[in-house]
Write a structure and sequence with these properties.
Strand content: 5-15%
Structural class: alpha/beta
Largest sheet: 6 strands, mixed
CATH architecture: 3-Layer(aba) Sandwich
CATH topology: Lysozyme-like
Radius of gyration: 25 Å
Number of strands: 13
CATH class: Alpha Beta
Length: 362
C-alpha cells in the first residue's frame, strides 16, 4: 500500500520560495545586458526624456562632449589645457579648464552644498530653469560651432542643431553652460547651425552659402574647406524654409538673412515642447509687446529678470542679433504649444505644462 505524506509547513515554504526565485531569475536581466536607447532622448538631472527627433548625446559616437578639458579638434599632442592656456586661447577673465560651471539660482547653502558635487534631482533643477535661449552660431555646422566654442573660445552651450535637424546635447541640463551672460544661471541654450544675419546693402557671405539651383531656388552649400561638415544625413541638401531673403529690424538695425531649414524648425519645435514640459517654470511663449508682436530688441533689465519662456540672444544683450529677423517664432513656439495641447494663445499654466510633459518623460 502506498503511503501519502502531507508536506510540512517548512517544506511548502521551501517549494514556494524556490518557485519565486526561479521566477525572479527568469525576469531579472542578465548581468551585463546592455540597455538600448531610442536615439531621441535628452538628459536633465541624469534622467532621460524622449522628444521624438534624433538626438546625439555627448556620450554617443560622434557626439560633442563639453565636459572634456582637452580640445576636440586639431593635433592631439597640442589639445591639452596647459597648451591652450599658454596660447591664451580663452575668453574667460579667470581661466579655468572647464567650459561650464554650477547653477546656483536661489538655492540656500544646504542645497547648494548638495548639488556642488553633482547631486541635482529634477525637482530642484525645475526650480532654477525658466528660460530657453535661441542662438544662431555664424559657423554653419554643429561641428564647426563646437570647435569654435569649445576649442577656441572656452565656452559652451547645451544643444547644437545641424541643418539636417540633428540635435547634439553636449552637457546635462543641470550644468550652467556659458552662452548667454546674465541668463546662464537660469537658462538652457541652443546654437542653430546658420551663417547668420547681416546689415542690409553691405557685402556678406549669403550668396556664397546659398547659391541657386537650375530652377532658381537657393540651397545650402558648405564651402569646400568644410568637407561634409559632419552632417549625419548622407547627401543632405538643405534649403531655407522660405526661399527668398528675409529682411527685418533687430536692435534697430536693418538686417537680411536666409531662413532656417524645415528640418531645423521641426526638431527645434519638438525640443522646445519637451523643455517646456520638463521645466514647469519655462513657459511656452516668447517676448511680445501689447499688440502681441515679437519684441525685436534687448529687454529692459527688470523685464528680462521677470521673463520666463523662450527668448532670443538679442533679448539679453544689445550687441547680439541672433537668431535674426528670419527666425519664425510662431512656427516654433506655436508648434510646441500645439504639441503640448495648449493651443496658440501665449502663456500657459505651469500645472498644464507639467501634465502635458508626461508624454516626453521616459
Amino acid at each position: 500500500m502506498t503511503t501519502h505524506r502531507t508536506p510540512s509547513v517548512l517544506g511548502l515554504a521551501t517549494i514556494v520560495l524556490a518557485g519565486l526565485l526561479a521566477g525572479g531569475c527568469r525576469t531579472a536581466p542578465r548581468p551585463g545586458t546592455p540597455v538600448l536607447r531610442h536615439g531621441d532622448e535628452i538628459v536633465a538631472a541624469g534622467r532621460y526624456f524622449r522628444i521624438g527627433t534624433p538626438v546625439v548625446l555627448w556620450t554617443d559616437p560622434g557626439g560633442y562632449d563639453a565636459y572634456r578639458v582637452e580640445r576636440r579638434f586639431g593635433p592631439i599632442e597640442k589639445s591639452d589645457w596647459k597648451t591652450l592656456l599658454a596660447e591664451k586661447r580663452t575668453e574667460r577673465s579667470e581661466p579655468t579648464p572647464n567650459r561650464y560651471s554650477l547653477r546656483r539660482g536661489d538655492l540656500p547653502p544646504a542645497e547648494l552644498e548638495r548639488v556642488r558635487g553633482g547631486g541635482w534631482d529634477l525637482p530642484l533643477l525645475q526650480r532654477v530653469v525658466d528660460q530657453f535661449v535661441i542662438h544662431y552660431d555664424v559657423c554653419g555646422t554643429a561641428r564647426t560651432c563646437f570647435r569654435v566654442l569649445h576649442d577656441e573660445r572656452n565656452l559652451s552651450v547645451h544643444f547644437l542643431l545641424d541643418p539636417d535637424g540633428t540635435i547634439y546635447q553636449t552637457l546635462d541640463l543641470k550644468e550652467r553652460a556659458w552662452h548667454a551672460s546674465t541668463s546662464n544661471d537660469r537658462s538652457v541654450g541652443i546654437e542653430i547651425a546658420h551663417i547668420g544675419a547681416y546689415p542690409a546693402g553691405r557685402p556678406n557671405p549669403l550668396e556664397q552659402w546659398y547659391p541657386r539651383d537650375a530652377e532658381g531656388r537657393p540651397y545650402l552649400k558648405l564651402p569646400e574647406r568644410f568637407g561634409d561638415g559632419g552632417i549625419r544625413t548622407p547627401n543632405f541638401v538643405g534649403r531655407p524654409a522660405r526661399l527668398e531673403i528675409v529682411r527685418g529690424r533687430i536692435q534697430g538695425m536693418d538686417l537680411e538673412q536666409y531662413d532656417f531649414t524645415p528640418e531645423q524648425y521641426a526638431a527645434l519645435t519638438r525640443l522646445t515642447a519637451a523643455l517646456c514640459a520638463i521645466f514647469p517654470r519655462l513657459e511656452c511663449r516668447y517676448p511680445t509687446d501689447a499688440q502681441g508682436k515679437l519684441i525685436p530688441h534687448k529687454l529692459p533689465d527688470d523685464e528680462l529678470r521677470a521673463f520666463r519662456g523662450v527668448i532670443g540672444h538679442f533679448h539679453i544683450q544689445t550687441n547680439k542679433q541672433d537668431p535674426g529677423p528670419a527666425f519664425d517664432w510662431e512656427r516654433v513656439v506655436g508648434g510646441a504649444r500645439r504639441l503640448l495641447g495648449q493651443g496658440s494663445a501665449p502663456g500657459a499654466s505651469p500645472a498644464r505644462v507639467t501634465r502635458a510633459g508626461a508624454a516626453f518623460a521616459r
